[in-house]
Amino acid sequence: MEEQVEVLAEENAPAPKKQPFLDFLKRKNIEISAKRYFIDAMGSMALALFATLLMGTILGELGKLIFPNSPMENFLAEIAAYAKSATGMAIGAAIAYTLKASPLVIFSCTVVGAMANSMGATVGGDKFAAGPAGVFFVAILACEFGKLVSKETKVDILVTPLVTLLVGYGSALLICPAVAYVMYWTGNFIGVATAFAPLLMGFVVAAVVGVILTLPISSAAICSVIFSAEVIVASSNPESVRLAAGAAAVGCCAQMVGFAATSFRENGFGGLVAQGLGTSMLQMGNICKNPRIWIAPTLAGGICGALSTTVFKLKCEGVAAGMGTCGLVGPFGVATATEKSPLMWVGLVLLCIVLPAALSFLFDMILRHVGWVKDGDQKLDL
Question: Residue 344's domain spans which residues?
Answer without folding.
Answer: 197-369
